[in-house]
From TrEMBL:
This is MAGE domain-containing protein. The lineage of its organism: Eukaryota, Metazoa, Chordata, Craniata, Vertebrata. InterPro entries: MAGE, MAGE_WH2, MHD_dom. Gene3D superfamilies: MAGE homology domain, winged helix WH2 motif. Residues 1-51, 53-117 form the MAGE domain.
Length: 117
């Protein structure tokens, strides 16, 4: 399973396409779905080691939790980054540094940030 996920990740990287969890779950059988986090981590370790590729991906909720601990709030203007909400959800998206999208089948809707290829 690790090899199949690794091949998928490499293919998407070469095609400059994003890799989603939903797509990877289609590759592994239902029987191994519960082991997905382990399979995914092992595949990522191999891409990190072999190709010097660093992967980062975070939920919007996690981003705001981290920033809140640093007393940085989405609607408050920050002295360095300005309006952080706009920077993260619009400016960096427009410049194609990241994607900001709704998590598939999330109810209530939740969003995630994905670094672009």
């Amino acid at each position: 399973m690790v090899t199949e996920i690794l091949q998928f990740l490499i293919h998407n990287h070469n095609m400059k396409q994003l890799s989603t969890k939903e797509d990877m779950l289609k590759i592994i059988s239902k029987r191994y779905e519960n082991y997905f986090p382990e399979i995914f981590c092992k595949a990522f370790e191999k891409t990190d080691d072999t190709f010097a590729v660093e992967h980062k991906c975070a939920s919007e909720e996690d981003i705001w939790k981290i920033l809140k601990k640093k007393q940085i709030y989405p609607v408050k203007k920050h002295f360095i980054s300005g309006e952080l909400w706009k920077l993260l959800t619009q400016d960096l998206v427009r410049l194609k540094y990241q994607e900001y999208r709704q998590v598939t089948n999330s109810d209530p809707p939740s969003y995630e940030f994905l670094w672009s290829p």
